[in-house]
Here is the input.
Amino acid sequence: MEGLVIKNTGSWYIVRTEEGRDYACKVKGTFRLRDIRSTNPVAVGDRVYFETDKEETGLISDIADRKNYIIRRSSNLSKASQIIAANLDLFVPVVTVRHPETSPVFIDRLLVTAEAYGIPAVLVFNKIDLYDPFDLEYLEGLETLYHSIGYGTLRTSSVTGEGVDELRALLSGKVTLFSGNSGVGKSTLVNAMEGEEVARTNDISSYHKKGMHTTTFSEMYAMKNGGYIVDTPGVKGFGVVDMKKDEISHYFPEIFRESKGCRFANCQHINEPGCAVKEAVESHVISESRYNSYLSIRDDESESKYR
Ligand SMILES: Nc1nc2c(ncn2[C@@H]2O[C@H](COP(=O)(O)OP(=O)(O)O)[C@@H](O)[C@H]2O)c(=O)[nH]1
Ligand SMILES: [Mg+2]
Ligand SMILES: [Zn+2]
Here is the structure.
């Protein structure tokens, strides 16, 4: 049998078949993942083959080739990584200008991740019902900046419903990863799009469990009009495993574009002579904020700040 992994409970994978039947599956003992050291060989979004002799349970025997997958380092101690999701069509950083403020470097960190995996990204600015005139002015600046680089953006509010229909239409028929700081309203947005509570939110009662995540494993929500949303639990950010320091500039499209004018082919755009990127920052062709994110992500790549 064949199906799509829609949930990982830690001990079981929930696999949904084409007909919409769910099977709780385990991974066959002999099965080995070939290409990656991972704490979870199977991830949500994986298309798997499984054997079943019972009504509702099965054994996964193979995974179809993935078109992409997103990983997170499991801990500082181990080099193993956790696959968050596979076969994504769209990456949606959900960010907020306020309550809480998402830092520009974190926004860029998420976009760099999308670029590194080659997944199209659309930035969602959420909770816009809470923004005062100053926040809205700041937001306009951000929108202009990200549009100029080539990213689409959307304003949303689960309270007023603004942007919710547009977002639902954008996601229709796709497997989309929602990512962003905890508390920005990802789960509430999923519920707003679906018109019912499908994703658990961080409401008042769960604030008692300080530091604990509502869920530990990734889960995909099947949307009514087709498509799935992966709502990553408590993901503060994830390192792009194996992203080399001198590759980071490739994931800032505007920096990459300007870097072709640098005197040295291996220019890192720090303080080399004839650096076209630094010139572009000085003439405001590249934003200072983006350039600072570039430097910051470069510095952090060997550290653990974002994990
Ligand atoms: N004012 C306002 N509050 C929101 C909005 N979306 C979510 N919230 C609140 O923000 C908190 C965190 O939401 P949640 O969906 O759990 O965030 P998540 O951690 O990103 O999944 C909850 O108290 C929500 O009620 C919004 O659009 N406007
Ligand atoms: Mg949530
Ligand atoms: Zn340069």
